[in-house]
Write a structure and sequence with these properties.
44% of the residues lie in helices and 15% in strands. It has 232 residues and is an alpha/beta fold. The chain is globular, with a radius of gyration of 18 Å.
């Protein structure tokens, strides 16, 4: 029965965490976000609003490193709403290293003129309310999202995600043939799906690239995809 499905048990746990966080959350965007329960896993994905999100960071440790920029775009299974594109650099107190600048092309001067973490996180939560977050490589985005919420609001909010990397890994694992982990990179997967090359390591570019990849992945799936088919 559906009640014995692992995703159902996960949903019960997620909802319990959401309700506990809702009680603790201060009034504002985080509380508004937490006030919305997750749609049923059996809901068709075509009926669900999605927010494709990417973070650029000063490193990979969510506790010691910081968010450097955030990009996102709204989408559904039918289209990507480019008019909703959002990209902001964050004025983090964390010093940039030459490696940061080379990768992200964000300078200290640009960072100094950036928005506060609270301002950007407020914007993200307002856009995310009532939607499911889409990312590529959920471990990074989840850790930095929760750490940022903890720093700004005092609550590490739970988050439900669709992960294009996880979807690709599931498909490759089913082949029962060894593969190179590099095949799971965003650029490699886009190439495999015959999507155009793009300029990486810009949060908005990566968010749009991830949204396009999801649409390509969904085209290879059964006609009606349910949330439970893609939810991490």
């Amino acid at each position: 029965m559906y009640s014995h499905h692992p995703l159902f048990r996960w949903l019960i746990g997620y909802e319990a965490k959401r309700k506990r966080a809702l009680v603790k959350a201060p009034e504002g965007p985080l509380k508004d976000y937490l006030a919305h329960s997750l749609p049923s896993p059996q809901c068709p994905l075509a009926q669900i609003e999605i927010l494709s999100v990417d973070f650029e960071t000063t490193g990979l440790d969510a506790v010691n490193d910081k968010l450097l920029s955030v990009g996102f775009v709204e989408m559904s299974t039918q289209y990507i709403a480019l008019k909703s594109c959002y990209h902001k650099i964050i004025n983090t107190p964390h010093a940039l290293t030459p490696d940061n600048v080379i990768i992200h092309q964000i300078t200290d001067d640009q960072k100094a003129q950036g928005a506060t973490l609270k301002e950007v996180l407020d914007d993200l939560l307002k856009a995310l309310t009532g939607k499911v977050m889409l990312v590529h490589f959920a471990r990074i985005e989840r850790q930095f999202f929760q750490q940022a919420c903890l720093e700004v609001y005092g609550v590490a909010a739970p988050i439900a995600m669709i992960d294009t990397l996880a979807l690709a890994k599931r498909r490759l694992d089913k082949r029962d043939v060894a593969y190179d982990p590099s095949e799971l990179r965003l650029s490699a997967l886009r190439h495999a799906h015959k999507l155009a090359p793009y300029s990486a390591h810009n949060a908005l570019n990566d968010a749009i690239a991830t949204a396009e990849l999801l649409l390509a992945q969904l085209s290879k799936m059964p006609k009606e995809v349910l949330l439970q088919d893609v939810l991490l």
